[in-house]
Write a structure and sequence with these properties.
Length: 656
């Protein structure tokens, strides 16, 4: 054996925004750009090997992963020396029904839930896919870019295919190498997987099963997360710790180009290039309960109500009271380095991008450091000038968003410091950043992001404080800022008490076809976020705009049927926002106002008012966003939408 391998359990520390090994970085840079993804890039994998019946564990794991993709689901087990596969278009429930009708057994299995990009979801396109012999099945997350060339070559050799997927091509390729190899055992299967994956251009996280090797599951990753769960006499393989955390909290996050053989009693990691494998065991910080709904009807509502706690978690241990500043050791930057920063670029997608916009306001206001916020999907293909004193932050809940990851890599490729603000511990962005800050918000399962947004804004407020205190911000101003931040969780609790009133407001407006969300300064990103939340879960068209910009076009939308949500706390620009509100009223527009407690004047102007407690201007987004989350939630529920799994979406967007 030439390659170095690691077998079983090796001691190690959890990865926590440490520097990534540079040889891996270089390899990432060699990855081709993914174009025209064909199949299932944002899906979930869960696999099990041990003594227990695999099917209930796999189905339970898939249910926990369903937020990652929910077009179709399937599984294969090995029982009585034979492979058994069940797969069905639709939700995991449809697969569970199929299995009840056609039961299968075995204590080793692989499974998958799919989010299709191209090609309609169908039974045939669902995973697992078998090789030509029918002895090997494969589940796959990612995109095999050169699948067509590989498929053409296989067809010429006599292979025929039952689906349109790239994954089936990979299964056939592994099967072909296995058939051609001498060894008909675990070693033969691993070598066949290695040979096939070396031919692949694109990204993958895979799990493969062979009826010739009933004691092993083979896995591999490149660009798509995969984690080994270590149990007692049993092991798991999954794309997401949430699928397996009910069974074990000891996990190994595989690195790109890792190939793994998972057995009941141990596991063995090799490198695709036969180099040295690095295995570190991490402890998952949360238990399975953190990813359960509890008494709440939806994850989204649970996560909205968690925010007083998650904001506290984001702040915990991160104040340096002696210096009236923040303590963010994970940034891995000295005070001198932080003082030398003269520009910040924040890059992100979706809700995280909105948090970055609030961050821009906070950092420029509190620390006077110029900031720019870039959509990661734009930044990665632009060539913006970045100099040595520019600091880049990639902001992401999942830590797996393809565009954000590519933006981070692009900045690192140019030799710049690139930091992460990330929720999922051990995620790719957390592992590849030069440093960063975890949100500590716990698992966010609802597809619409809520608690991650407020945790991101909290962390950005801490960064603003830290940078500010290294510049002109006085100790008194620093202390006042800390005091105000610490009061936010209680203030959110007060807002949440208006839950029933917000449900009633939702009932009044749920039939509107269009909504405007309007705010100014740091409440402009809140308007964007309010509009995004509403449209993604209720499918009502909504636009967020700076309140004063509205008269340059969107005001044409205003009539008695189009409600406007005004975010108008009593901040420095309150009077100006009021004038914009009057402009809408003058055109018979209905108005829902998010206003400061004690603002009685607004009740005379707005049709409905939701109050938030008073805070300093820069921190209002942490409060004003909460009613908008609840408004979107209740409108969507009242319209009968699938709030936690809105159509066409998936939680973690691992395709560009
Ligand atoms: C919207 C939402 C998405 C994500 C975006 C980025 O509610 O959840 O817009 O914010 O896909 O995801 P992360 O933060 O995981 O990079």
């Amino acid at each position: 054996m030439r390659q170095k391998v690691v077998i079983g359990i090796s001691p190690g520390k959890p990865t926590f925004f440490c520097s990534a090994p540079c040889f891996l970085q270089l390899k990432f840079l060699l990855l081709p750009v993914i174009k025209n993804p064909y199949d299932s890039p944002m899906c979930g994998i869960v696999a099990y090997i041990g003594k227990r019946p695999a099917v209930p564990l796999l189905v339970e794991g898939l249910r926990r992963l369903e937020y990652r993709g929910y077009d179709s689901a399937g599984l294969s087990t090995l029982g009585n020396g034979r492979l058994h596969t069940r797969k069905r278009v639709g939700r995991v429930d449809a697969l569970a029904t199929l299995i009840r009708e056609q039961p299968i057994d075995g204590s080793i299995g692989i499974s998958h839930t799919r989010w299709a990009t191209h090609g309609a979801p169908s039974d045939a396109n669902s995973h697992p896919h078998a090789d030509a012999s029918g002895k090997i099945t494969v589940v796959h997350n990612g995109v095999i870019e050169n699948y067509q060339a590989l498929k053409d070559a296989l067809v010429k050799e006599g292979h025929s295919f039952a689906s349109d997927t790239d994954t089936e091509v990979l299964a056939h390729l592994i099967g072909k190498h296995y058939a051609e190899g001498k060894l008909k055992d675990e070693r033969g299967l691993l070598d066949a997987a290695r040979a096939a994956l070396r031919q692949v251009v694109g990204t993958y996280g895979i799990a493969a099963l062979s009826s010739d090797c009933p004691g092993v599951i083979v896995g591999a990753r490149r660009g798509s997360p995969l984690v080994v769960g270590i149990g007692q006499g049993e092991h798991f393989l999954s794309s997401d710790v949430n699928a397996i955390v009910a069974h074990t909290r000891d996990v190994v996050y595989l690195n790109d180009y890792d190939l793994v053989a998972v057995r009941a009693d141990d596991f063995r990691v090799e490198r695709l290039d036969e180099g040295e494998a690095r295995v570190e065991i991490s402890k998952v910080a949360h238990d399975a309960g953190a990813a359960e709904k509890g008494d709440f009807p939806h994850y989204m509502l649970k996560e909205i109500f968690e925010q007083p706690q998650t904001i506290q978690n984001a702040m915990r241990g991160r104040f340096n009271r002696n210096e009236s500043s923040a303590a963010l050791g994970g940034l891995n930057l000295t005070s001198t380095e932080l003082r030398n920063v003269d520009r910040i670029i924040m890059t992100a997608c979706g809700t995280s991008w909105h948090a970055a916009l609030v961050g821009e306001y906070l950092i420029e206001e509190i620390a006077r450091v110029p900031c720019e916020v870039e959509y990661a999907s734009e930044f990665r293909y632009r060539n913006p000038p970045i100099d040595k004193n520019t600091l880049l932050f990639a902001i992401t809940q999942s830590g797996e968003t393809a565009d954000t990851l590519a933006a981070l890599r692009e900045a690192k490729r140019k030799g710049h410091k690139a930091l992460g603000i990330c929720n999922v511990v051990g995620s790719t962005i957390a592992r590849e950043s030069d440093g960063g800050v975890y949100l500590h918000a716990g698992p966010e399962v609802g597809v619409a992001s809520t608690k991650a947004f407020t945790a991101q804004v909290t962390v950005l407020a801490l960064i603003a404080l830290l940078l500010g205190r290294l510049r002109h911000l006085s100790a008194m101003q620093g202390s006042r800022f800390i005091q105000e931040l610490e009061s936010i969780p209680d203030k959110i609790t007060r807002i949440l008490k208006q839950h029933d009133a917000i449900r009633e407001i939702a009932a009044k407006y749920k039939d509107a076809r269009d909504f405007l969300f309007l705010g100014r300064q740091c409440n402009y990103p809140v308007a964007l976020e309010g509009a995004l939340k509403l449209k993604e879960i209720s499918y009502i068209h909504a636009e967020g705009y700076p309140a004063a910009e509205m008269k340059h076009g969107p005001i044409a939308l205003v009539d008695e049927k189009t409600p406007s949500v005004f975010i108008c706390p009593q901040d420095a620009i309150y009077e100006k926002t009021m004038s914009n509100l009057e402009e809408v009223r003058a055109r018979k527009g209905r108005v829902i106002a998010i206003a400061t407690e004690g603002d009685t004047a607004i009740s005379r102007k707005a049709d409905d008012v939701i109050h938030v407690p008073k805070t300093i201007d820069a921190l209002y987004p942490l409060l004003t966003n909460i009613p908008l989350q609840l408004l979107a939630y209740h409108i969507a529920v009242q319209l009968g939408r699938d709030v936690d799994k809105p159509r066409n979406l998936a939680k973690s967007v691992t395709v560009e």
